[in-house]
């Protein structure tokens, strides 16, 4: 009985493969009702979507929209720009061993110098200088953050004191194990 089930499956797979090679129709009838209305491109397009057993196009499998367009290189300028940007970031951080904090600092200095020069050039060309908003940090928010941070630091010191006095063996062993694991880096 198991042989009987495998035989039609194998035959149907062979039929599908031969349909792929021979253009789809296994019948030799010359019916032109559906094929002429849709044209030859519709048959080819339907065959492309069924390649490798897929029922959906790759664009739909990738979720559609702009991310799928980017991956499939539908807009070559955008995809090339993303590839160039990722390559530049890789070159900066891996090949040249540049650090993120250094990069952020240099970008901030460069933007500050650009803003300074633009403000001074605006005076010479008789334009109004750029409107830079005044930034103020509220005192109550700063005090609340400091109090919360102070509470967490004091709780950490209390835990370290408890471990140091030998009152919590489990935490002591965990700290020793973690220091051995991450201290060797």
Q: Structural class of the secondary structure composition?
A: mainly alpha
Give the overall shape, derived from the CA principal axes.
Answer: flat
Alpha-carbon distance between the two ends: 62 Å
The overall pLDDT, averaged over residues, is 79
Please count the helical segments: 9
- String of helices and strands: HHHHHHHHH
Global Rg: 34 Å
Plain-language structure description:
It comes from Aegilops tauschii subsp. strangulata (Goatgrass). It holds the Pfam family Reticulon. Residues 1-41 are annotated as: Disordered. Residues 67-173 form the Reticulon domain. With 185 residues, the chain is mostly helical. 71% of the residues lie in helices and 0% in strands. The radius of gyration is 34 Å and the shape is flat. The two termini are 62 Å apart.
């Amino acid at each position: 009985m198991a042989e009987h089930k495998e035989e039609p499956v194998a035959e149907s797979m062979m039929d599908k493969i031969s349909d792929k090679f021979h253009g789809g129709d296994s019948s030799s009838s010359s019916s032109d009702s559906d094929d002429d209305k849709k044209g030859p491109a519709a048959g080819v397009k339907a065959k492309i979507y069924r390649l490798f057993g897929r029922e959906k196009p790759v664009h739909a499998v990738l979720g559609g929209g702009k991310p799928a367009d980017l991956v499939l290189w539908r807009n070559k300028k955008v995809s090339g720009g993303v590839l160039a940007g990722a390559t530049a970031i890789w070159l900066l951080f891996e090949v040249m061993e540049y650090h993120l904090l250094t990069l952020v600092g240099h970008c901030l200095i460069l933007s500050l110098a650009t803003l300074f020069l633009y403000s001074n050039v605006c005076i010479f060309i008789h334009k109004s200088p750029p409107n830079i908003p005044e930034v103020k940090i509220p005192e109550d928010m700063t005090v609340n953050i400091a109090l919360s941070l102070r509470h967490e630091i004091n709780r950490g010191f209390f835990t370290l004191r408890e471990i140091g006095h030998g009152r919590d063996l489990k935490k002591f062993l965990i700290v020793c194990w973690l220091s051995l694991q991450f201290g060797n880096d």
